[in-house]
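request received
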Amino acid sequence: MAEHNLFLLLACLPFATSLILLTLSPNARGASTWLSGLSLVAGLAILAGFLPGIREGDVLRASLEWVPSLGMNLAFRLDGFAWLFTTLVLSIGVLVVIYARYYMSAKDSLPRFYALLMAFTGAMQGILISGNVLGMVVFWELTSFMSFLLIGFWHQGAAARDGARTALIITALGGLCLLTAMLMLGHVAGSHDLGVILRSGDAIRAHPWYGAILALFLLGAFTKSAQFPFHFWLPGAMAAPTPVSAFLHSATMVKAGVFLLVRFSPALGGTEAWFFTVTGIGMVTLILGAAVALYRHDLKGLLAYSTISHLGLITALAGIGGPVAILAAIFHICNHAVFKASLFMAAGIIDHETGTRDMRRLSGLFKPMPITATLAIVAAAAMAGVPLLNGFLSKEMFLAEAVYWHNGTWLDNALPYLAIVGSTLSVAYSLRFIATVFFGPQATNLPKTPHEPPAWMRRPVELLVFICLVVGILPALTLGAIVNIAARSVVGPDLAYYKIAIWHGVNAPLMLSLIALAVGTLIYALSAKAIATGPEGPFLLHRIRGQRIYDWLLFRLTWRLPRLALGLVSTESLQPQLRLLVLTALAVAVASLWGGLSFAPELRLHAFNPAFALLWTVGAACAIGAAWQAKYHRFAALVLLGGAGVVTCLTFAWFSSPDLAVTQLLVEVVTTALLLLGLRWLPKRRSEIPEDKLLPAKIRRSRDLVIAVVGGLGIASIAFAVMSRPVVSNVGDWFLGNAYYEGGGTNVVNVILVDFRAFDTFGEIAVLAIVGLTVYALLRRFRPAPESIEAPDQQTMADSPSVDDYLFVPSVIMVWMFPILIMLSGYFFFRGHDLPGGGFAAGVTLAIGFLIQYIASNVRWVEARITVLPIRWMGFGLLGAVTTGMGAWVFGYPFLTAHARYVNIPLVGQVPAATALLFDIGVFATVVGAVVLMLVAIAHQSLRASRRREQEELAARKEAA
Amino acid sequence: MSPLDSIPLFLAIPVAFFVFLGATLTLIGALGFARLNSFYDRLHAPTLATSWGTASVMIASSLMFSFIDGRAIIHEFVIGACIILTTPVTLMMLGRAALMRDRAERSDALPEEMHIRPRPQDPPAQT
Amino acid sequence: MSRLFPHPVLAVSLIFMWLMLTRFSLGYLILGTVLSLVAGWAYSALHSARPRIRRWSTIPRLGVTLFLDIIRSNIATTRLLLTEGRNGRQSAFIQIPLTVTNANALAVLSIIVTATPGTAWVEYQTDTGILIVHIFDGAEAEHYHEVISNIYEPMLMEIFE
Amino acid sequence: MSGMILTIALGYAQIALALAGCLVGTRILRGPRAQDRVLALDSLYVSVMLLFLVTGMQLGTAFFFEAAMVISIMGFVSSVALAKFLFRGEVIE
Amino acid sequence: MISEHLIIAPILIPFVVGALMLLYDDRQRGAKFWLSLASTAAQLLIAVELVVRAKIGGDIGDAEGMSFYLLGDWPAPFGIVLVLDRLAAMMLVLTALLAIPSLVYARAGWGRQGPHYYSLFQFLLVGLNGAFLTGDLFNLFVFFEILLAASYGLLLHGSGQLRVRAGLHYIAINLAASLLFLIGVSLIYGTTGTLNMAHLANLVASMPGEDRPLLHAAIAILAVAFLVKAGSWPLNFWLPTAYMAAAAPVGAMFAIMTKVGVYAILRLSMLVFGETGGASAGFGSGILIMLGMFTVLFGLLGILASQGLGRMAAHSVLISSGTVLGITGFALAGGGQAMLSGALYYMIGSVLATGALFLLIEPMNREDGGIAAMLALTADAYGIDDADMEEEPDVGLAIPATMAVLGGCFALCVLMLAGLPPLPGFVGKIAMIQPLIAQTALPAGLAWGFVALLILSGLATLIGMARIGIQTFWANDVPLPRVLALEIAPVIAILLILGTISFKAEVMLRYTGGTAHALHDTAAYAYGVFATPRAADRPADEEAQQ
Amino acid sequence: MEIILSAAIGILSASGIWLLLRPRSFQVIIGLCLLSYAVNLFIFSMGRLTPGAPPIMPKGGFVDPTLYADPVPQALVLTAIVISFATTALFLVVMIASRGLTGTDHVDGKERSQ
Ligand code: NA
Ligand code: NA
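response:
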């Protein structure tokens, strides 16, 4: 149990540290260093505690339930391989922390840097110790994200931003592929537990999805490990602070990909597809990386390509997949981490102390910084594979695998040759590094005068180089055992102990090594001048730059193409959108009805009435006329609309709906007034727009005409199909039967509105109120077009009579109508429950009463005499309706339960008293408020315009005076 | 059996007459409205409908429903009253709007002397 | 009382209208009265000046004259409309200087003119007091000039001024 | 007998009124001036109102009355608004 | 007794508060804000209580945890019935969770940009909550109109050319869609004689064959109206412009507006065309899947092609809508409950994240000067003679470490929307993909295509957002913006909620799983609606017990 | 009669749709009005046509539902009328606001050629 908790602690420790670091002040340099370092050391201590068990081949497990139903848990699993790798990560982490303390300048917020670093460490460690593949993906993505932030730590530079973004996109793309692969693996294996998946290799390889899984999986691994053709993000990432490069881009994160390859080789490996892709890509990357590295002028660039090349080597080993190859891969992971981290740190020191990393400028640094130089030379020698250093050992093993391992394919046969090319080039670039930087004449024009760095900045390098040496000389004593354990935990307990030795006798690999050293030296010696003055890449190849292709592709795929595509499939204009809407509705309706629309066998038709038909010829003509005139003769269109409206009213009345006829008429009146009020602000259109006569406009119009006709035909035929069908049994019958007995009213429509379905009405008044408010709010910010501010032409004509003169007689009658309309409003209100009418009709009637007064004189005159507070009316109306509805609660009934009874009043007799009436008062008040608010809000714009004109005139007159 | 059959003949004849009269007047008015050439002439046509046209239909309706309901039904006359009240407003305002527009355009629809607004000092002209 | 019923004539007509619309009952009467009160207040808010009717007795006379005139001009106009194109009708504008200036009186006059087919109120100018009426049958111009300025106008002045 | 007389009269009235509506409808369409259209719309309202009353009598129901009344009292409001727009260029100032 | 009426509280509380605030002077914004906040908080509490009730079953009309409320005490299918089931309860909570941060954010400045903001906001909640609760088709129309009307008002809030132009399109399209809605609903009534959804579900299996095409047409037309609201391609071109133009807190609320359309489609299609739909079962599933896919694709392209964050946020709304639409199609085609459960979970997360993103846009793009600059930008030169333009001091304090906080919040939103761990976007996508790839009954091409789109949309989001984020936070030399705590606290709150949703994913998925199950169980829904007793019919002793 | 009404609905819809697809905001608003007439009539027609029998009940006694017009579509139309009135008003105001701010009455706030 203690072990379990310690294990969880190990997993959480870096994250917790990161959070604490975030709270530190940016100046807490010392504290943050100590905190980070100690946290990592604590992690190492825990790992050390686990060592005895690991030695025994135990697998430590711990798990936190997260989403068990998806098979997604934070399950942790520590075996030899994970232990070794985690230890490596944490150890280098400690050194990087120390190094960064001196490397980062005072301007950088060290706590924030460490916080990111710690979070990254936690994520990296998470990948290594995940026991659940989905959990692994979680950490995997997290490393991509944290590395993005770390690369962009110095985001003032464009290179850092671009590098960070490229790294993020490439690795996240890989991560998503990996996620899919893991989900598929989980489906195939029946579990997302890593152990289960690793044991289901046979099932996986036999599954039809194997190819897809492999492809997606490898995409994940290759992008992370910067394998060709995704290698280019790694050099770009060198814009990061050097500690980040040393940690993420050499020792840890980039190794996550190869970790994955090694880890999953039992499950996915062992097939030709695996071998060809993994080893093939690995070899290409090995050679290509090494070749480019030789030509890079930037110190970190050289190291970055060298890293790519070494990652290729490890990948190739994983592709071979045999027990020894796996062991060699693991071993090389460790070795490369050690020497490459030290090299990066050394490069950082050089950069830090000289101010440049350009190898064409650096020269003869041995003299001013002998210790650093010595350390770097040893580390570079390890990178080149010089005997007695750790790099030599694992490279020997690789060469041995290349020579001795066989599966009979052409690639297998080519392996030794490819390996030797890679090794040779790696010797050459290591040599170039040493020779140009430390030897030759001492550079004079460096930005800073070079000298040794602070001692503690060098300590991590010293330690790492020391390890290079110790491991190189005493491999079996140092790493031999643990590498064996690690390999066994990957390939299985059957693996025989492999003794790593310096001396295997004179054999092919040794000969190859020596050849590589010799040829490499020769190549460098011959081409040193050409390289120093040439482009940053081998012959012809330097023109093909991964980054540039990537940029080109990214630009095309994620910017140009989407914009082009959107331009083609979308529009910002309204007309095409409405056309699409109409067409879609037509399409779905036609699709649903195609071949299925049937008319009743016996059409249910009513006798033809000529009067009705005659009036509809007027109505139809008006509708068509309105459509025809709406562009150039708005006023006419408005009148025509009124004509169509009145015939619609007639239809409602004809077919037994007096309520509808009344309401439609009232609304018609208000709508006409509103539209007229709006007409004032529209541009005058006296002459034809010339474009309207051109062919495209005609085509547009004909097309729309076809759509309109088809749409009209469609809706007409649906209407006819339903109207001529026999009546289906419907809820209306129940309403008819129960309106009087249950709803206490004889006008069923009104009883539905205020009782049976009062909730609809409740919502409807809310809509009215909202629209009123919106209109009001919008118009307070109304700004008329400049040419509309002027008074209309009619008012500016020389001989135009004043409005008071015009309205002198009419206004008298219009004022008389006010009390009449109030009476009428009351009439509609009180009889609504039994006969046509109701709160809505009453409200609109009263609002029309107000409207007439506004028309009869002017805003100022009316408002000096009557004050309507429409928003208050709305507020009271809404509250009245809702409280009436809630009143039912008091009696234990649901909202809006109506209560009707007859009250006997002396002399008067039976008087109906229904709560529905109260509800209707709410409706009435809201309707009055909303309609008046809208009318008045629009009407006030004319007043504002005229007030503005008056002010301007006044100002002009004052100026003149 | 339509409700119309229950109306006694002595009532049916006046009802029918008034209905006929009202409808015919309205139709004649509409006919004139469609045929007349000048706006100011057309201004007269609808008044046939709004004066006796409406009135006679009102009377007919009132007679008939008073019989059906067995009590005096006179609410039709509210309609009549309102028509009488409101028609002038429309016609006055339209007529003057038309006059102003015709004056502004110096339209042929107006006789020459109507093109200028009478001024306070002008002696009233007579036609 | 005048606060409660600012316009008694109006109130009574409104109640009458209410009772025409509804059926007569005490309940409706009360309701109608209350409503007419509200309506009266609303009207007086707009029109604080109380229009006063000075001579009630002229009203029936006016009514009868108008009724006959309406019938007469209905017949005349119908005839003209039916024979349109063959009767050589010429329409005309007439200008009638009015002495009545009371707005209510003018409103009633406008109702009279409008209700009488064959005459159309076209323009009334407050500054000149000139009323322009369009006459459907120009031959009757003299007659209508006469009727308006010598019959209706004096009656209206009797009633309102 | 009375039923027949009334049926004929009302049937005739219906058609006559509808025809009247058609005739004024032509003016709504033809104009020629805006004032003609407004006047025509006003007349259409009146025709429809009378048609309501006549149809109500034909069917023996009083339920057409409200609609007719609304036209008689409020039909003029649209016409007035339209007329004022013609005269002033705006409806409420 | 109170608990019985709790179902309707999410509609009535904002209604009452919204109406009440109309009686206040417009300048009493402080009071209005606190009233609104109290109302919204109460809605949240009640919604949570309703979720609990939906989980364990209510005391009235218990049908698998559903509760019913007969408005006006009229029995179904005649009266209108409110139905509280797991889905509705969940949507209520989601609405309230989004509303509170948006409201608080508006307090920092937007609430002052025009009159009656808070009332409109409350009415928007009325519409949303009502749409989620109602069990009646026409009532659904009414609530749609409420929420649309309020959204028109809120979209136009602050005025200005951009907003008004976008508003014109938004309104025109939605008006046209509303007409389609009416045609659809009335056609349903014309062919089946009912408006009650449960009744409709009961009737559809036994419909005569000759009426079935008409019903299909009705629902298809209705669906077009819903699809417009849901932002489905090709009916969604208005959406990015409108959402982008809206004021930040309004944009945040809009994140859930599309989901109302999705909700309606999900609800209605499962009820009518689910397994019990007889000959109509599965109607339209194929087209729904295709539309979902096209919508995701469109959103994906849009995110990549966008230059501004607002437009990107709007397109991510589309992606989330399209995803849920597509999964609805799969579920309708018989894809099972698991993926629907995942989609619902994903929807919760994506709604909240897009909401947070909308709230971030404005502080991120604010060059300097805080609210004052914003006011200056939107104020029109003409007609500021009104009371709503008076200068008020900024409310609240500016936050320290602005860039870090903003950047952190933005990054988390991106992680969520791109479907990267550890936020719910990741969990949700896994919860959808797992059943999609495991499902063999579905056409493999569609399922895999959908999976690919899900993954690619995440990548596109990442690419697009990273581009913008880098530009804003890394490549910008402008002085540090002044951001108020009141503006950033809501974002942080939403992110915390997102974290919790992710952390408690198992609980959430169990809930959404139950929801998906209930959605498939049409019979329980219909039974519950009809079995609900009227208050008047309840025996006296039972009433005494309550 | 059913044929006349169907044709009327069709013509109103066609005119409305045509206007809806026009570029000027006033055309669109007139189109929306015509469409809402059409839709209101459509809803109304879904209850089938019943001339001369409004759903107004006698006070008491047995009611034969088949004799009366279906009240439900009427109630729906009433609500629809109110709502479409409100939204038309809103659209109108947005239309004039847009005209004021953009200087044009084109629905896109700019002329096509621009
Ligand atoms: Na006359
Ligand atoms: Na019926």
